[in-house]
Amino acid sequence: MTATATPPQAPPAPPRARRPSAPLLSAPAARIATLSALGLWAAVRWSTLVEPSGAGRMIGLLLLALVTGFVVGQLSRLPPLAQAPAAVVVVLAWAGISMLVAGVPARLVLDTDNWDDLALGLQQGIEQLPQVLVPYSQSDPWPRVAILLGGALLLALGCVLGLSPGRRGVPLRGGAGFGGGVGLRLAAATPLIAAMLVPPIIMEPDMPVVEGLLLFVLLAAFLWLERLPRGNAAAAIALLAAAALGGALALPRLDGEKPWVDVQALVEGLDRPDPARFDWSQAYGPLDWPRTGREVLRVRSTVRTYWKAQNLDVFDGVRWIRGAPPQPLAPDAEVPREARRQRGWNVSVRVTVRELTTSDVLGAGTTIDFEREPVRFSPGSSPGTWVSDEPLEQGDGYVAETIVPRPRQAALRAAPADYPQELFRYLVVGQPEQSAFGRWTPGPGSVFAPPFGSVDPDSPQGLVSAQQFATGPYARTYELARQLAADAATPYDYVRRVLDHFRDDFTYSETPPRRQLPLDAFLFRDRLGYCQQFAGAAALLLRMGGVPARVSAGFTSGTRDDAREEFVVRDYDAHAWIEVWFPRIGWVRFDPTPSSAPALSGRAPETQAPAVAATTPTLPRAPELPEQSAARAAAAEAAGEEGGSALPWIAGGAALLALLSAGGLLLRHALRPPRDADELLAELERALRRTGRPAEPRLTLLALERRLHDSPDAAAYVSTLRHARFAGADAAVTARQRRALRAELARGLGLGGRLRALMALPPRWGG
């Protein structure tokens, strides 16, 4: 039997693999679209922290962040040794452009000579953040810049992480990619989520449920859209809707009365020194005003003048005090019509309060009106002065419209003694009375001095004539006034004679003795005192001679910085002066105090001088920015105001930008150190000024060297500079000497002072 072979069976074909569904969107398109949407909502929400809204600037910062993230993602294509330098260039470019978009002037960002001013400005804005209220709307622009830059940093972090390369990156044209893991995308979303959540945490949102659902949708799309298969899109949308609905229903239980994170409690832990306070009443004893050198005001004005807080227009027989007109008067009631129309006398003054608490609204001359009041302002006791319903504090700002007469000397000399009857109250001098124990106290009687040159002895009803002076306790003061007025042809001539009287035989001292009749004792016994004695005695002599006069108190102009077009006013600029009224001109300022007074010399009292210079440590001043609209919301909700007083991690973000600026500044100094004695001298002057110790006009290098005798290396630095400057020696200062001088500049200023000293006198290569 023949066997038949069975043909072999072919193996069964393997089952066909299921073809994966195509993604709903291509990965690059999904990543860029969802990141842009998430960043856009973060930018819009962050912009509500400032008022008016900074949405335009924040959107610009978002576009910059996206470009920066893309560029950083491409750095991996460079050779390894070139990646780190390229990253530094990208970061510095981002920081510079971000500051421009946030509102910093180009001259501060693009000119390396201004980088130190830029760093100080950012520092000032960051320091003010714990005290600001949001939405921030004050006139000081640096806190606004700091807030916007904090948002810029969050946007940049999110975009850089979201577009960063990874081993499982999404391929782009040319083979490069960015990270595709959900973990990395979640890390990228974290700073963007923070930018969205901070505003509603601080300020209660109008539609919290809607905003929460929008955030949920945007976040889900960013995390999973690029990997979502098209076939699963419907199920994903249904699941997303169910989760959103569940979250909306659970919101009432999650939103309790107590916050999960008590931002206010965190803020209260930030310790800051108490602001300066001033009592403008005239005590005539040892001066007790704050004299630490703190910056109390920053004023932008086209005119150098004094910044007035109060008028002391009543002499009660012992001292000058605030009075009140017989009836409420308009702010410009004592301004002649001619003065209102005088070109250049209407001055707009922008005031920003620094380390000061006051209910007196600082202005100049006669303040008529205001723009951008942070709180309600009301007329003060004297026309042209104002008080605030709530104390003004650091960061508050406003624009005052003022009238500041600046007449020519010929116009003053030609002004007659033709005073309207409404001004007669400025010719009244109170009389003291003596108690049973022999003490002089303010009395109920007052004496009227007839107008200058008048022979009419009649006095207004209820007031005795000037003859009463001859038999009262101010008899010799009245006799001095008559002598000074005897040879004066005009009221202005009399004013000049009174001022000249204090030029000789009178000494400036902040520790005069206490007297029962302090001004009479100042004129004839002690002959020493400070601005209160000089101003009070001059105004008393002028009134007795028939010229309307009063004492004013506030601050001198402070230090002018032409580059920033602002005046920086410190606590030792507090001052008292006199104002004299002239027909067709109005109130004109005169100052009888010697120029050696700290408020007039631009330096702190010698008794307060530190080891390095004759001024006390102070915070540096910040550069001026373009004016930004500011008006605090008058009816802001209390909860929003309280909770919005600090953004600690905003400060952290802006601080990083400040560090970048400071790093660039230090790098500039290291790469371009001073090359000769002149440059070293200019650097030393800047270092003294920027550490709050500006050299007084008469300070010499030899005097500074002697002040540094406790630090031989620091003294040697100045000695080397002195010999190089005047003896032609080499300016070979050593790194050790430079470190010693920097330590002296920072002495007593704390951590912030050490940082300022480091920026002012940074290390440099080669010495």
Ordered list of secondary-structure elements with their pairings:
Blueprint: H1 27-47, H2 55-74, H3 80-102, H4 106-110, H5 115-128, H6 141-162, E1 170-171, E2 177-178, H7 182-202, H8 208-224, H9 233-254, H10 263-268, E3 295-300, E4 307-312, E5 314-315, E6 320-321, H11 337-341, E7 346-353, E8 358-361, E9 366-371, E10 377-379, E11 386-392, E12 397-403, H12 409-414, E13 428-434, E14 440-448, H13 475-486, H14 491-501, E15 507-508, H15 518-526, E16 528-529, H16 531-544, E17 549-555, E18 559-561, E19 566-570, E20 574-582, E21 586-590, H17 598-601, H18 638-643, H19 648-671, H20 677-690, H21 701-707, H22 712-726, H23 735-746, H24 750-760
Parallel strand pairs: 15-16
Antiparallel strand pairs: 1-2, 3-7, 3-19, 4-17, 5-6, 7-12, 8-11, 9-12, 10-11, 13-14, 17-20, 18-19, 20-21
Please explain how this structure is put together.
The protein is of the alpha+beta class. Among the domains are: 27-252, no CATH class; 295-408, no CATH class; 674-767, no CATH class. Helices cover 42% and strands 14% of the residues. The strands form 7 sheets. The protein has a 6-stranded antiparallel β-sheet. The chain has a 4-stranded antiparallel β-sheet with strand order 4-17-20-21. Strands 8-11-10 form a 3-stranded antiparallel β-sheet, with no helix packed on it. A hairpin with a 4-residue loop joins β5 (314-315) and β6 (320-321). The longest helix has 24 residues, at 648-671. The termini are far apart. Pfam families: Transglut_core. This is Transglutaminase-like domain-containing protein. Residues 523-594 form the Transglutaminase-like domain.
